[in-house]
Amino acid sequence: MGIAAGYIALAVLLPVAGIGLCYEAVGEYRDRHRFPLKGALVAVDGHQMHLFCTGDGNPIVILEAPFTGISASWAPVQEAVSRFARVCSYDRAGYGWSEPGPLPRTSGQIALELHALLARADVRPPYVLVGASSGGFHVRVYNGHFPAEVAAMVLVDSSHPDQASRLNLPADPLAEDRIWGPFLPVTHRLGILRFALHREPRAPAFPADAWDEVLYLRDKTNSYRTLLRESAAWVESADQVRASGTLGAKPLLVLTGTLAANPAMRALWVDGLQADLVHLSSQGRQVLVEKSGHPIQFEAPDAVVEAIHEVWNVVRPE
């Protein structure tokens, strides 16, 4: 009976695995031809990093992505900003087109890699730094390391170093997902990661083609591994953010999504942690984005563009 059950299981699983392999292979082939590399690969301390710059005009705007770390997530924002300024997005080491970088994946390490990437690509300061979600950690640490290079900052529903304790959240946001790390190559090849990604809804304000490119670049074993590694370094990164200091008198806009926020979340996040970020600068101001939740660059990219344009106009050369 046990042997018979094993044969039955194989008879069921083998065709399913075959379908998954074909699904992933066809999807990868199609996406690889739809979405060629934009920009350039730049050697940074032994690994290649992807940088994509468009437009003209100083100071240069640098876009730092959220946890998924992929430049394509800025597509509509970058297109609009490039009409008035030089703007660069990039894949953090380990995401998308970029090769993995050294561990641990802390904000300090990420900021140093971004600095080296911009230097090697001859993208010269000053910069307007824009950080979304966890990307807010990295731009704040960058400013702490290289304050003379930063002219202004926009924080897009940015993470806060005290959010875990004040919102009663895990210190490592993806700790429970770490069990899947060893199985990532298999789940990728069988199309399981692709299937899960394509079930995520697209925000209507984000173009369909750009969304498909984001999903293609996220559907990589290295991208998932890096996500887990950045999460594992969260506590150390939060400490680095606390030690990075303030912005002084640099222009700062803090964008906060308020869509569907209940009274408790408004008190803790909107009027609490997000409002607290305004005090990083004597020229800080909070902008409430009523038509968006947390992923503002997806749900209300125009609000991000307006914020960038506002601070850029303040610091641009006369």
What do you see in this structure?
- It is a single chain.
- The chain has 318 residues and is an alpha/beta fold.
- The protein has a single domain (35-315), classed as Alpha/Beta hydrolase fold, catalytic domain (Rossmann fold), CATH 3.40.50.1820.
- The protein is 46% helix and 15% strand.
- It is built from 13 helices and 8 strands.
- The chain has an 8-stranded mixed beta sheet, sandwiched between helices.
- Helix 4 links the parallel strand 5 (127-132) and strand 6.
- The protein is globular, with a radius of gyration of 21 Å.
- Mean pLDDT is 88; it is low at 6-14.
Quickly count the domains.
1
CATH-wise, what's the superfamily?
Answer: Alpha/Beta hydrolase fold, catalytic domain
How large is the count of helical segments? 13
Kindly state the mean pLDDT as a whole number? 88
User: What is the general shape?
Assistant: globular
The quaternary organization reads as single chain
* Helix coverage percent: 40-55%
The CATH first-level class comes to Alpha Beta
Radius of gyration: 21 Å
Largest sheet: 8 strands, mixed
CATH-defined topology: Rossmann fold
Alpha-beta classification: alpha/beta
Distance linking N and C termini: 83 Å
Strand content: 15-25%
